[in-house]
């Protein structure tokens, strides 16, 4: 992004979690306790992570989500504020815990994760509708990630469509109700397995497990009338558009991949911010890929998220 970075305005709607990570010699079996030497705490949640990625890349970012009125929630909000994210649209709810992910990692990097959705599951559609209304005339794009109630996702997508604000949906996870959103024409950004789920909502493909990703993405794009961007880890991103050829963008070269947690969130935040700033879909995706590939060189979802300058350097 360039010197007019401050004019790039993005609203992100989605989950915020606190991640507690324990490294152990092996993953526990049912009923078993394993002990690791330390526990580390990281800010997480796909929505909040994407908001941080966009802010670090130079955008003005508002985040809409929900936390509990507990110390954990206060800490999660403080981390977002410190990253330059506006949290005015966050609901602080009594009687419910802030979302938390309990993560165990073994020496091979294999993990086991349990998420307590907490306040994320209580984010109501009215609050989301109000946040998108407030962003009308301000935001160039609304990014929605779907670890929140289906009604909250629908409120974000339909209000953005009614207000003519461009909308990007990171369908992680794909909800059965996602099919109702197709006609609102959001840009979808699934990873490979989410693309399979999304495609299956539209076409019964259980007899055809080997359909290539490009074909599935094109089928989804022809239903939404909007581009579909498929993130493929070390293979980069595929862009299917209803009116043009599929474009493949390779991932950036990474000397040593340390931790891919949050790579998709980094892609989504930086991609949506660039769209908000008026970039074409392909140029915005290039920025997203460059940022995501830089982010995998550090531990933790947010630690390796690059600045706008670092992204420019990688393009
Ligand atoms: P998700 O975290 O949603 O599953 P992906 O794993 O597909 O998302 O990663 C998103 C993006 O992060 C990729 O498109 C790529 O740009 C970057 N990325 C992920 N893993 C690697 C890797 N091993 N090497 C380089 N870039 C990577």
Automatic annotation (TrEMBL):
One of its GO terms (molecular function) is metal ion binding. It is an enzyme of class 2 (transferase). GO terms for cellular component: cytosol. Its cofactor is Mg(2+). It holds the Pfam family PfkB. It catalyses: D-ribose + ATP = D-ribose 5-phosphate + ADP + H(+). Substrate binds at residues 17-19, 45-49, 147, 265. GO terms for biological process: D-ribose catabolic process. Its EC number is 2.7.1.15. K(+) binds at residues 259, 261, 295, 298, 300. Coiled coil: none annotated. Residues 9-306 form the Carbohydrate kinase PfkB domain. ATP binds at residues 191, 231-236, 264-265. Belongs to the carbohydrate kinase PfkB family. Ribokinase subfamily. PANTHER family: RIBOKINASE (PTHR10584:SF166), SUGAR KINASE (PTHR10584). Homodimer. This is Ribokinase.
